[in-house]
Design a protein that fits this description.
Order of helices and strands: HHHHEEEH
Helix content: 40-55%
CATH class of the largest domain: Alpha Beta
Largest sheet: 3 strands, antiparallel
CATH architecture of the largest domain: 3-Layer(bab) Sandwich
Strand order of the largest sheet: 2-1-3
Shape: globular
């Protein structure tokens, strides 16, 4: 069974608008997802060895459901940290991403306005821009839980953590818009 190790993101030190202290706390939360994925895999493997890995076994069913949540949390955080950029113009407004955003929204600015509106919605979750593999168009989505609501087969290309742990204590819970601006 594959054992996952937390990834490290040293290039994020000194980000503008997101403090190193907040990132360190966020990395600890992410490491918890990695740890839980590994622990759940061990428990599921034990059930399989005992012949209890059956859909009718409540323990197997619950561990499998929980693994989806923890695994989603691990991967989404890796994508989120990977999206954070220390330099200016993270969207690369002249590159292929900008072209894909403009194709679906008319302009990068129109996409950004839509994405920011979704990220600013009340609630906890994720704002994610996905690319449809069929037509290459980008669409923005709100995802409440790590493991629910992802468009099947779509590739996440911009991932923003909109849970409060992503921006408090740098910003007040009522200052999500400031965090969104700092993200970009």
């Amino acid at each position: 069974m594959k054992r996952y190790e937390p990834k490290h993101f040293p290039r994020l030190k000194g980000l503008s608008g997101i403090s190193d202290r907040l990132l360190q706390d966020h990395f600890k939360l992410y490491e918890g997802y990695v740890k839980n994925v590994n622990e759940l895999n061990v428990q599921l493997e034990a059930l399989a060895k005992e012949g209890k890995a059956k859909g009718t076994n409540p323990a197997f069913a619950e561990l499998t459901r929980w693994l989806g949540f923890e695994y989603g949390g691990m991967v989404l955080h890796e994508l989120y940290f990977g999206n954070l950029a220390p330099g200016p113009d993270p969207l690369g407004k002249a590159g292929p991403l900008a072209q894909a955003l403009a194709q679906g929204f008319g302009s990068v600015e129109a996409w950004l306005d839509d994405f920011k509106a979704i990220a600013a919605m009340r609630g906890v979750g994720w704002a994610i821009a996905y690319q449809n593999p069929e037509n290459r168009l980008v669409s923005n989505h709100w995802i409440t839980l790590h493991n629910d609501g992802h468009p099947p087969g779509f590739k996440p290309i911009v991932v923003m953590d909109a849970w409060e742990h992503a921006f408090v204590p740098d910003y007040k819970p009522t200052e999500r818009a400031k965090y969104i601006d700092a993200y970009f």
